[in-house]
Design brief:
The protein is built from 8 helices and 7 strands; from the N terminus they run H-H-H-H-E-H-H-E-E-H-E-E-E-H-E. With 478 residues, the protein is of the alpha+beta class.
């Protein structure tokens, strides 16, 4: 296969234009191409309407997703507030429980102290009862001794009365015996002796009686002291009994309080367990809400990506569409002017693409477009752009080819040769093998501020010049 690189001047185009047969042939071609372009345009309009309908549906879906997301966010915020409230309540209940436990521990300590004091009081009371019994035994013994001494005193008093009566009788007898004094002197002496003895005995009896009276007084004083001690001990016993009763009441009160605290503690534990269950439920609901929110965010991102793809990428080939191409071309123009480096736009049209659709069907045509897009991407660098302009037309933006036109032309020719060779290789369209070619028009930009529309028009003109030159070639706009 022989190919030429053609640069057409205005004079050559004028000569070709005056050939009537060529003009008629070109007119027929243009009419056929126009009809094909109209069909393709109608098809693209239908696709555009479908995409617009899908975009509207996607927008509604996205709006619905956003509403659901807001609802879930509100539910999540409410759940977080509820969870924070539950945590606060749990903290309060835990603090109350800690206070109740401290109070219960304090009451148990007080109860232990009261029990110890009560045990000591019981021991003291038992000791005092023993002392009281001893004092009562001593008092009974003293009473018996006092009664014995009183009996002895009575006996001595009776003996004294008898002695006094005897003395009176003797005095009477002395008077009587005065006459008998001589004879009675012996008797009198004897009686005097007896009297002295009796006087001595009486003196001894008086001393004994005085001693017994002193002892009686001592015993009475001891009895009074013992009675005071007993009364004191009875008072102390009453006090201890009263204290014991108070301690028993306090113990009963503390036991009641302990029962109440235990009941409150049980209620608090139930409340805490209930709150923990509620917290677990809220946490589970929150986890479900978070999963739902994450799922909705993923769906939203997917919808956004789909909308972005629908807005900026060709759905068949996956290449940037005309809108994104023009945006990237504006950036490329600004970058080339800023760096004063030349870049090139290549406008590529597949030759006789309509025949594929007419003879093999649109399925084969779509597969050819997909494979063409893949081959074009393999021919350019990662930072360059390959876009589907519409129908069977593709546009390449290749940047930073150098500062001089000669250097940029050499690089562009190398890339163009690679593209022509790649697109001329056989295509496997299902069971059919297709040999196709492409016409390429190229235009440089970067040294002057041309618009994106002007650059694309110039590249389109150069592409038609390539078709006029026999197709399967690269022509630079002059």
């Amino acid at each position: 296969m022989i190919r030429e690189k053609v640069k057409c001047s205005n004079a050559e185009l004028a000569i070709v234009t005056f050939d009537p047969a060529f003009q008629q042939q070109e007119k027929c071609k243009r009419a056929a191409e126009l009809a094909s372009a109209n069909k393709e345009l109608a098809h693209q309009n239908e696709e555009k309407d479908k995409r617009a309908a899908e975009l509207a549906i996607a927008n509604k879906e996205l709006a619905y997703q956003n509403e659901e997301k807001d609802k879930r966010a509100a539910e999540l915020a409410s759940a977080n507030k509820e969870l924070a409230y539950q945590n606060d309540e749990k903290g309060k209940r835990a603090a109350e429980l800690a206070i109740a436990n401290k109070e219960l521990a304090y009451q148990n300590d007080e109860k232990s102290k009261r029990a110890a004091e009560l045990a000591i009081a019981n021991i003291e009371l038992a000791f005092q009862n023993k002392e009281k019994d001893k004092r009562a035994a001593e008092l009974a013994s003293a009473n018996k001794e006092l009664a014995y001494q009183n009996d002895e005193k009575g006996k001595r008093a009776a003996e004294l009365a008898i002695a006094n009566k005897e003395l009176a009788y003797q005095n009477d007898e002395k008077s009587k015996r005065a006459a008998e004094l001589a004879t009675a002197n012996i008797e009198l002496a004897y009686q005097n002796d007896e009297k002295d003895k009796r006087a001595a005995e009486l003196a001894i009896a008086n001393i004994e009686l005085a001693f017994q009276n002193k002892e009686k007084d001592k015993r009475a004083a001891e009895l009074a002291i013992a009675n005071k001690e007993l009364a004191y001990q009875n008072d102390e016993k009453g006090k201890r009994a009263a204290e014991l009763a108070i301690a028993n009441k306090e113990l009963a009160y503390q036991n009641d309080e302990k029962g109440k605290r235990a009941a409150e503690l049980a209620i608090a534990n139930k409340e805490l367990a209930y709150q923990n269950d509620e917290k677990g439920k809220r946490a589970a609901e929150l986890a479900i809400a978070n999963k739902e929110l994450a799922y909705q965010n993923d769906e939203k991102d997917k919808r956004a990506a789909e909308l972005n793809n629908l807005a900026f990428y060709d759905p068949l080939t996956g290449l940037p569409n005309r809108r994104l191409l023009i945006d990237r071309l504006h950036h490329a123009i600004d970058s080339s002017i800023r760096t004063r480096s030349l870049s090139v736009v290549m406008f590529i049209d597949l030759d006789k693409f309509k025949d594929i659709n007419d003879t093999l069907g649109h399925g084969h045509g779509d597969l050819l477009l997909e494979q063409t897009a893949q081959r074009l991407e393999s021919c350019i660098r990662k930072g360059d752009t390959a876009a589907r302009f519409g129908g069977d037309e593709f546009v390449l933006i290749i940047e930073n080819l150098g500062n001089s036109l000669a250097e940029a032309t050499a690089i562009a020719n190398i890339v163009g040769d690679k593209i022509v060779a790649t697109l001329s290789s056989p295509y496997n369209l299902f069971t059919h093998e297709h040999n196709g070619t492409a016409s390429i028009g190229a235009v440089f930009f970067g040294h002057d501020r041309a618009t994106a529309e002007d650059i694309l028009k110039q590249a389109d003109i150069a592409m038609y010049q390539a078709k006029q030159a026999g197709r399967n070639t690269l022509v630079f706009f002059n």
